[in-house]
Amino acid sequence: MIADLAAALRDEARRANERRLLVLAGEREASYRAATDALDGAGVPASETTIVATKAANGADFRDCERVTPKRADALLGTTRTAVVLDCHDECRPNALGRTVGAVDGGGLVVLCTPPLDAWPDRRDGFDETLAVPPFDGEAVGGRFRTWLVETLRAHPGIAIVDVDSGTIERDGLTDPPVATERQPPAPPSDHSFPQATYDACLTADQADAVQVFERLREQGHALVVEADRGRGKSSAAGLAAGALAAEGNEVLVTAPSYRSAAAVFERARELLETLDALAGTDRDENPQCLDTPGGGRVRFAEPAAAVEDEALATADVAIVDEAAALPVDRLATFLDAPAVAFVTTVHGYEGAGRGFSVRFRDRLAESAFDVTEQRLDDPIRYAAGDPIEVWLFRALLLDARPSVASLVAEATPETVTHERLSADELLADEVELREAFGLLVAAHYRTEPNDLARLLDAPNVTVHALCHDGHVVSVALLAREGGLSADLRRSVYEGNRIEGHLLPDVLTSQCRDLEAGVTTGRRVLRIATHPAARSRGLGSRLLDEIRSASEDDEIDWLGVGYGATPQLVRFWARNGFSPVHLAITRNDRSGEHSALMFAPLSESGHALRDRHARWFVGRIGGLLTDSLADLDPDIVRTVMAASAVTTPLDLSAHEWRTIAAAAYGPGLAAIDPDAFRRLALVHLTDPESSHLSAREERLVVARILQGRPVERVANDLGYVSTRECLRALGDAYRPLVDRYGDRVAHEERDRYD
């Protein structure tokens, strides 16, 4: 029965160049046996099948199939498989679901092994455990995401469902689609520079247009951003372009999270070079990661870290970064050192590290010296347009969720909106509201990914607040309850153990050595976003005011936030009553920025927690800025220190004041006693009433005095014509500080020269 159904599904999939999905619902061992029957019936070779599962089951013969775990499903990025079996018994991980389905080619089969569908939402699994942060246990986690998933599986065409325990077919998933029409090759562009064979290999006009855009990389100073959903042929376009560039004698560096992710790039490059008779050596197994040409050009692969460390980037004429969304922002930025570069990436977040590329890195690219060209591919290649499994996946994971239409919220102001606390049940019942709220989070935050949809619907410590204008979500915030930890748990964290889901108490306890940091209870703002059509009107601040009021009613001690620090974001949080208590000493892997932790106290206990950590932070920041934070953007230092809840104590000796005043007004030198100058700089930066220095002067003081950067670098960075002018400006910057903060001794020394 199952073999015949799988055969019919795959036959239909091949006929229509679409994919089909087979749900085998029941106990694990029965679903595994059914999966082997399905693969046999569908005629899928083991070499073309991947099993995504945490463990094997008795009676299942997947011995010759590739295996990966759900946590490592990102290994499927950039690959193409005829069939993938995903076991959801141990855990239903949304990210893994997206990556698994996205790897299946047209004419292929997706097999989901699940618990009985009616009982599945009420079962708890390994992914639920990641949502059950203390004091909650697994039983407190909801089953709403799986409820939503089951509803979509039962509603969409192309999905067959079999109850393997009873041996009954709930639905056969057959759609009787029309036979796929033969794809006509696109006409090559009339003004192309790459060889004609490059365009003859393109399958769609979209792909040919993308290849032609790559021609710009023949000249230095150009950067490309090539975006598409899965299956649009973007990696193949990159491969054809890489081959054409190498045939001209260029050194083309290709990087990706792994060589496997870039395999399609090398396949297309090899095929083109063979067609052009421009491949030096044809042994595929000799060195598949390097394609040489007789003219000295080549296409070579290097993993991102090795590309920099082994100087592959330094010798390249062109760099192509495939699956760019899967790389951290800071790593992406290293490829801006290439003479010409292309970033090839998937639009939606299940491809890798959320939306770090589109939300954070695009700004860096726009600010670079490159002439940037953007290209998008929309026409599917690996399967037909309207593939029912792609339609289902996008809806099930809200991959295409977007904010409401701009015109519906364009008139929103703090006076026209209403505050709502959106319950998970309400969101599940109202798909439009769910899509608007989640779409805002996806559009605004580099971290938002499908796992967050399950977190929003099921995590017991998460709440959602929104501002609505005429019934449409215009601003939304996701908050997590943190703190309120038992003495045993606090002691465990203090002694070095991690605690998931309590970021602020964890850092303040383990890193900042505060055994009592987890006593109070707070809410951390995980995400906050406002519709692009209504930004800069105070809506984010209005939402935080509503959250503050609601939290005080709930007897919450503090609000907190942790984020990749930028001057703009620091100022936003400071305006809303948050002050810094910590700066991470290493850069965040995803954002490439140093994370800032900030608090807004709501109770007496919250004030006590914030105040002591603010004091400790101000006390240690001077040492950090000469060490691990020496390369931190001076504007971040300025804004963070200006947001401090405490002022640095002013304790300079008479001798130190004479040294500073002499350097500011006379022949003295800051280099004689740099620590005294640092302490006075921190007094100024944390003084809420001090406005005596310009922004440029503060950058100078931060970079030269607090961070100890070489004067040559500081002069160059800040636009001084010489080091002499830079040092003179530094002395001038300290004059108003001597005037404002100096004691009698300082002023007497000043008057000696003034």
Helices and strands in order:
Layout (H helix, E strand, L loop, with lengths): L1 H15 L3 E6 L2 H15 L6 E4 L13 E3 L12 E7 L6 H9 L1 E11 L11 H6 L12 H12 L3 E5 L4 E4 L24 H5 L4 H10 L7 E7 L5 H14 L3 E5 L7 H13 L14 E3 L5 E4 L2 H6 L2 H4 L2 E4 L7 H6 L6 E6 L9 H12 L3 E7 L10 H9 L9 H4 L8 E5 L1 H6 L1 H14 L5 H9 L3 E8 L2 E12 L3 H8 L8 H8 L10 E10 L8 H15 L4 E7 L2 H9 L3 E9 L6 E8 L2 H22 L8 H9 L11 H12 L8 H12 L9 H12 L4 H8 L4 H19 L2 H10 L1
Parallel strand pairs: 1-5, 1-6, 2-3, 2-4, 4-5, 8-13, 8-14, 9-11, 9-12, 12-13, 18-19
Antiparallel strand pairs: 6-7, 10-11, 15-16, 16-17, 17-18, 19-21, 20-21
Helix pairs in contact: 1-2, 7-8, 8-9, 22-24, 24-27, 25-29, 25-30, 26-27, 27-29, 28-29
Your description of this structure?
The protein is 42% helix and 18% strand. The longest helix is centred in the last third of the chain and has 22 residues. The chain starts with a helix and ends with a helix. The chain folds into 4 domains: 170 residues, Rossmann fold; 174 residues, 3-Layer(aba) Sandwich (Rossmann fold); 202 residues, Aminopeptidase (3-Layer(aba) Sandwich), CATH 3.40.630.30; 100 residues, no CATH class. With 754 residues, the protein is α/β, with parallel strands linked by helices. Strands 3-2-4-5-1-6-7 form a 7-stranded mixed beta sheet, sandwiched between helices. Strands 10-11-9-12-13-8-14 form a 7-stranded mixed beta sheet, with helices on both faces. Strands 15-16-17-18-19-21-20 form a 7-stranded mixed beta sheet, sandwiched between helices.
